[in-house]
Amino acid sequence: MKRIRFCRYAAIGALLLTAPLVAQSKVTIYNQNFAVVRDQLFLDLKSGINEVRLTDITAHVEPDSVILRAKDAKRVLQILEQNYRSDPVSEGLLLSLYEGKEITFLKEGFPAGQTEIIKGKIIRSGYVPHRLAMQRYGQNYAMRQMAYAAPDAGSGQPIIEVDNQLRFSLPGRPVFPSLTDDTILKPTLHWRLESDQGGKLEAELAYVTGGMSWEADYNMVSPEKGDVVELVGWVTMDNQSGKSFREARIKLMAGDVSKIQPEEELRRSIYAADVSFVGGEMKPPVSEKAFDEYHLYTLNRAVTLHDRETKQVEFVRASNVKSERVYVYDGVLIDFNRYRGHSSESIRQDRDYGTRSNPKVWVMREVQNSQQNHLGMPLPKGRVRFYRQDDDGNLEFTGENVIDHTPKDEVLRVYAGDAFDLRGERVRTDYRIDTSRNWCDESFQIKLRNHKEKDTVEVRVVEHMYRWVNWDIVEKSHPFMKTDSQTAEFRVQLAPGEEEVITYRVHYTW
User: Fold this and answer.
1) Quick one: 29 and 151 in the same domain?
2) Given pLDDT bands bounded at 50, 70 and 90, which one contains residue 345?
3) Integer CA distances (angstroms), 372 to 289, 321, 352, 409, in order
4) Where are the alpha helices (DSSP H) in 223-300?
5) Among 305, 330, 354, where does a domain finish?
6) Residue 310 lies in a domain
7) Is residue 225 a part of any domain in this protein?
8) What DSSP character marks residue 65?
């Protein structure tokens, strides 16, 4: 009878899942490891209460985010009850369902091809249930479940009784009786729906799911000479949701959206119009628009995104982009872990604070994200890789880093590495403090050396006035700019083989 009941339910599920039950999916993927899935469902309901099972969902759906509503405002559709089952049938699950019962095990013997039949009673299955519940209810719940599964071993270890002897492993490959009503083949939403009238109904389904993410990657290619680059941006989508999306409309949301994880779930649904095809025009693969306080990128053609698949789509390409190479020397080297929790007064009176020197000169790349510079598109955060063409025509990798979300008309400033032929040296030459009169003087000497054979470079020397907020540079060898309340910047031109020395004295009062 169990088998008959299971087949009846399976038939219901198969009936509901036949085409065109689920139309083309629409998926909005956020760069915070979640997505919103929207499907059109075609239901054939009777008037009154209906039982509906849907298995065409992801394995990481957030059940309390599910929204189901009729597209026809004249139809009344109410969810009386929703049940979510996320533990599909597996060997471990079936072992747990037959705990306390005897089943058959098949053991491969020698010579090859011979099989021994062993009868064994399942004392403990070792199955660890409720994986998603562990994520929801936290570490204590997970530890209790692990203890239930294997209180001694600390992991899922079965106990099988064979010939009145206990074995802490399976004696062979288990052979189970027919499936029971408690088993499912896929994650399943089971609804009890009430419809005000019978007949076919088109409904909208939306839910939040984990297991999906996207990120942006950029490649900047420079010619053999000069710093005019070609920029190519890729969108990389990763689908680990447990569901494949065939010919889906994909949108990508960029921005820092508030999402509570993992203890609580965010209920959110997004309904946006499709981007229509513009006949006769070559469209970019991805279009962008402002959406609320974020930016929405739409793939302009349907995309199939298989489960456990990573897919890349080009979303921006620009040529003749001006890129300025900037050299920065930030000569102070401070171990912030050593001074964690120190007050500003203790730092001010510490003679050794800020006296260690960093010899490296940073190489920065600055790109104006504007239409005049052949860009002007809001760029989502991602990794930027730099390449330069060698004299033999090959591209050589010259550095990489990560940019944050960058609006149009802002400057991209990316650290690309340390200059090989530039060196800096920073030495404190004097330190005086008078705590009774509330003042402090500190003097520094900064040496910069250019070992390049041909190129003259400009180095921006950044100095941090970290003793106190009230300061004044009373002596200096070079002009400077005050870039913020506690930072001064000197700019120095260095010819090939030249060394330049910067000196200054800063006076603090408090």
Assistant:
1) no
2) confident
3) 19, 9, 48, 9
4) none
5) 305
6) no
7) no
8) G
CB burial class (10 A; 0-12, 13-18, 19+) of residue 243? buried
Domain region containing 270: 1-86+181-210+245-305
Same domain, residue pair 365 and 480:
yes
The shares of helix, strand and coil residues in the chain, as percent rounded to the nearest 5, are 10, 50, 40
Phi, psi for residue 227 in degrees, rounded to 5: -125, 25
| Cα 299 → chain centroid | 19
Rounded Cα–Cα distance for residues 432 and 349 (Å): 10
Q: Is residue 159 part of a domain?
A: yes
- Same domain? 185 vs 41: yes
Paired residues of 443 in beta bridges: 430, 505
pLDDT in tens, 440-475: 999 999 999 999 998 999 999 999 998 888 999 999
Report how far apart, in Å, the C-alpha atoms of 27 and of each of 185, 388, 393, 482 are.
24, 37, 41, 48
410 and 452, same structural domain?
Answer: yes
Q: Is the pLDDT assigned to residue 186 strictly greater than 80? A: no
Same domain, residue pair 168 and 190: no
Beta strands at 360-368 and 309-330: parallel, antiparallel or unpaired: antiparallel
SS3 395: strand
Of the candidates 218, 207, 205, 216, the one whose C-alpha atom is nearest the C-alpha of residue 253 is: 216
CA 347 from centroid of its chain's CA atoms: 38
Residue 204 DSSP one-character state = E
Q: Residue 442 has what pLDDT?
A: 95
Taking the C-alpha atoms of residue 229 and residue 501, their distance in angstroms, rounded to an integer, is: 34
Q: Which of 260, 279, 305 is the last residue of a domain?
A: 305
- CB burial string 26-40: b at 16+ within 10 A, e below: bbbbbbebbbbbbbb
Residues 56 and 158 in one domain: no
Single out the residue of 361, 351, 485, 343 nearest to residue 416, CA to CA: 361
- pLDDT of residue 497 exceeding 90: yes
Rounded Cα distance, 94 and 104, in Å: 13
Q: By the 8 A CB rule, do 443 and 463 touch? A: no
- If asked whether residues 171 and 193 sit together in one domain, one would say no
pLDDT of residue 1: 35
Domain count, the chain: 3
Are 291 and 338 within one domain?
Answer: no
Q: What is the per-residue pLDDT for 56?
A: 83
Question: How far is it, in rounded angstroms, from Cα 362 to Cα 419?
Answer: 6
Residue 365 lies in a domain: yes
State the chain's mean pLDDT as an integer: 81
| Position 300, amino acid | N
